[in-house]
């Protein structure tokens, strides 16, 4: 299972000594640029910390790097993230065709494959790619072994092309957990789908009719039946002369 904020080898291993080391590192930083602060927090806490989680802790602490580091160490380093498994989902290279600015719904079947009930306040959000108009979706507190169908209402982009949207489950504090979920669509020119359906219908109409043996009106009914049965008169004469 892909977990962005799980334990990993890096600067954060827990303990007061590490906090003091981190405080010494950021004490020389005087930047107020938010992008730079996010990068510094990721650098200090380890590459496992994704951008959204880093921005969340900084924003929660008024973009104070020291306070954000302390909050992370106090909260995330002592709590185990929930577990989620994707039960069914199209492969990343499978796409569906839609027309521009057409709404559609993407659904994934997920389950809690851990040993703890999910905390209240979890939600799903787009973590990478094109949101395609999708908003955050609240997720119920699934018990261990329990599953659900998670649906997101989306809108096809206005320009033709192939678009992908990566979605993740988040804890109430913004930490990603569980398997990634993908929505991949191909936007085609308006009217293309209807034209394709019409051409398919025309092909069906133009299919050759099933073969039906035709009856020759110039041959007697008896001769016609005998020819179909591949029989020959006992005297060997031509049946057409009967």
TrEMBL record:
Signal sequence extent: none
Nbr1 FW domain location: 94-187
GO cellular component: autophagosome; cytoplasmic vesicle; phagophore assembly site
Pfam families: N_BRCA1_IG, UBA_4
GO molecular function: ubiquitin binding; zinc ion binding
A Gene Ontology biological process term: macroautophagy
Compartmental location: Cytoplasmic vesicle, Autophagosome
Full protein name: Nbr1 FW domain-containing protein
Organism: Anoplophora glabripennis (Asian longhorn beetle)
Gene: CF106
